[in-house]
Amino acid sequence: MSAGETIPRVRQKALDLNLDPLFYGSIAEIGAGQEVARHFFQAGGASGTIAKTLSAYDSNFSDAIYGHDESGRYVTRSRLENMLDKELDLVIERVTRTRPAGSTFFAFADTVAARAFKADRECHGWMGISFQDVPCAAPSRVVLHVRMLDETNQAQQEALGILGVNLIHAAYKHARDASGLLDALRDDLSWGRIEIDFVHFGGPCFSAVDDRIMNLRLVTSSLGPVATFGPDGRAAVPHDITHRSDVLILRGTFRPFLKVHSDMIRHGCETFAREIGKPTSDFTVLCEMNVARQLSEGIDESSDLVERIEAIAAAGHSSMITSHLRYFRLSEYFSRYARRTIGFILSVDNLYSIFDDRYYEGLEGGTLEAMGKLFSSNSKLLVYPNLREGRVVTASSIDLPETVRHLYQHLVHNRRILPLEPPPGILVPFEPDG
């Protein structure tokens, strides 16, 4: 669908809001133009919805209006929430007496780092809305962290404008339906333009909403490929967990989290630290659960996933839910914005899948293309032995098909595949994960 086809439908949403005299507020945008406000003005009748629009690009102006952020940065959640608080308070203070009886008020804000001229930076931002669903109510709030994937600044601005209108309209139409609100954010945004990797719901409209379930829904609703949860079990922005550091990933079902998983992580950390020459404190460990197959079959495992997230957190680890079925997609995801070493802890059983041509059906270059993508970012596979039919199979003794045997030996020789060797007595039989 072309951009020209999406705009009229977005403008229709803006017009619907403009024609309702009882929903009124401000729009504040920093970093990518006034793309959200533009749709309301171009739809016509914007005076019915908009009290004020604002763009504060100069840092001194922004600090004077919203306060100085201790981080010294401007694309932050705290900056966004200061914007929402300030703008909603001003709207309520200044226009309550002059608006029609029964009015409800809102403030929309975003602060983003879009693609800049001659700059190759991470394009991301924070977007949110604070709103009343009934007159005089305490405000409810929706906060999003987004990543813009378009190649040009203009295209990123356009995508942000569409998402912003969707968010305002969804808060208006789905005030007490968090799932419906999230689903409405996809309207007119084709896959590959915007990823949402964190969402927070707060206030009276969403008092019964579990943020963990909603962040899982980001993945199951195809709003983003990844949702992350810290060692406290709470949803988090992926960047806040990984800090652009090297990453060590253990893929599994973790149903339940077993002693062997702990041992795989321990030996994986020791080997990875030696290999990259860094202390374990310098890289991030993630327990990753892939839901691609469940999505393709229409299965919703959200409640079960929350229990597994809690179990992983109880073991002291962060977790990640993804729709990336193949390992090289994870490697691409983490290498997109920063060059880093990525380690995958996996069992011998997982190797059989990774080196199986059937695993890459639909990929033009098959196994060779997948291996090129997997290892282009200096990725490493750290292989834990399995018990198979009563015998221990290791990275050294695995018997792979002859068609990939030389490729496997090449990767072992170049230390892209590393064996993990736990002491006798630790290894236990378990079903292959992933």
Overall description:
The protein folds into two domains: 3-209, Maf protein (Alpha-Beta Complex); 239-419, Rossmann fold, CATH 3.40.50. A hairpin with an 8-residue loop joins strand 4 (124-131) and strand 5 (140-148). It has helices at residues 3-18, 35-43, 59-66, 77-95, 153-173, 178-184, 211-220, 238-242, 259-276, 292-296, 302-314, 327-335, 348-354, 366-375, 402-413; strands spanning 23-30, 50-54, 104-113, 124-131, 140-148, 194-202, 226-229, 235-236, 246-251, 283-290, 318-322, 342-347, 380-384, 386-388, 391-393, 417-419. It has 434 residues and is of the alpha/beta class. It is elongated and about 80 Å long. 39% of the residues lie in helices and 22% in strands. The strands form three sheets. The protein has an eight-stranded mixed β-sheet with strand order 8-7-11-10-9-12-13-16, with helices on both faces. Strands 2-1-3-4-5-6 form a six-stranded mixed β-sheet, sandwiched between helices. A two-stranded antiparallel ribbon has the order 14-15.
Give the name of the CATH architecture of the largest domain.
Alpha-Beta Complex
Strand percentage lies at 15-25%
Tell me how many strands there are.
16
Q: Estimate the helix proportion, in percent.
A: 25-40%
**How would you state the average pLDDT, rounded?**
90
CATH superfamily of the largest domain: CinA-like
Based on Cα principal axes, name the global outline: elongated
CATH topology of the largest domain: Maf protein
N→C terminal distance: 34 Å
The rounded Rg comes to 24 Å
Main sheet, how many strands, which sense, barrel? 8 strands, mixed
Supply the number of structural domains: 2
